[in-house]
Amino acid sequence: PFGRTLPPTARGCRPVAREDARCYCSRQPTKLAASHRSRHKRRAGVNKKGVTLIELIVVFVIIAIGAALTIPNMGSWIQSYRLRSATRDITSNLRVAQMRAVSNNLNYQVSFDVGARTYILQRNTGGIWVPEGTAQTLPTGIRINDPAPTNNPLTFSPNSSSNGGTVTLKNTKNDERKISVLPSTGRISIQ
């Protein structure tokens, strides 16, 4: 009921006959006076079950605002990440070709198909280029820049040298990365 204070017995306290008795709810010596009743009022207003619906809505609104602020920046970050990833993958494939050429005493090459956006590792066995694995496709939004890579395909010989050349990759933002192979040493570098 409104405006009325319930006696301590209605709020979980044992009825007591003496003034210095212990309160059942707090187990502290107390006088059952106004101060005791106000303590029960404060406890009655606390939600002991968890969070309220309003608190939950406020948390979701804060999360939604944070997501709305970060998502537009993700698009440019993803394109840059894909360009770096494709550059690393091609560089790794070129290094594998170079190592296999030396270890197997055969010529190896990485051949690029600009139109299909693919590249493949191949070995030379008696004048015939045999694929080693399947063609690798560049990530979405990444292309091999026209004109085609210089000296396509890039070939490595058993003495670790190569025919040399440059592969330029671009993303949809026109950011580019260049992979260069030196002819005399076969050194591969990213610019």
Q: How would you describe this structure to a colleague?
A:
- This protein is α+β, with helices and mostly antiparallel strands and 191 residues long.
- Helix content is 33%, strand content 21%.
- The chain contains two helices and nine strands, in the order ααβββββββββ.
- The strands form two sheets. Strands 1, 2, 3, 4 and 6 form a five-stranded antiparallel beta sheet that branches. A four-stranded antiparallel beta sheet has the order 5-7-8-9, with helices on one face.
- A hairpin with a 6-residue loop joins β8 (176-181) and β9 (188-190).
- The protein starts with 33 loop residues before the first helix and ends with a strand.
Number of helices: 2
Low-confidence stretches: none
Q: What is the C-alpha radius of gyration, as a whole number of Å?
A: 37 Å
> How many E-type strands?
9
Say what oligomer this is.
single chain
Distance between the termini: 79 Å
State the share of residues found in helices, binned by percent: 25-40%
**What is the string of SSEs from the N terminus onward?**
HHEEEEEEEEE
Mean pLDDT: 80
Give the overall shape, derived from the CA principal axes: elongated
The assigned structural class equals alpha+beta
Major pleated sheet: 5 strands, antiparallel
Beta-strand proportion = 15-25%
List keywords for this structure.
5-stranded antiparallel beta sheet, 9 strands, 4-stranded antiparallel beta sheet, 191 residues, elongated, alpha+beta
What topology does this entry show?
Elements: H1 34-44, H2 53-104, E1 108-113, E2 118-125, E3 128-131, E4 136-137, E5 143-144, E6 154-156, E7 165-170, E8 176-181, E9 188-190
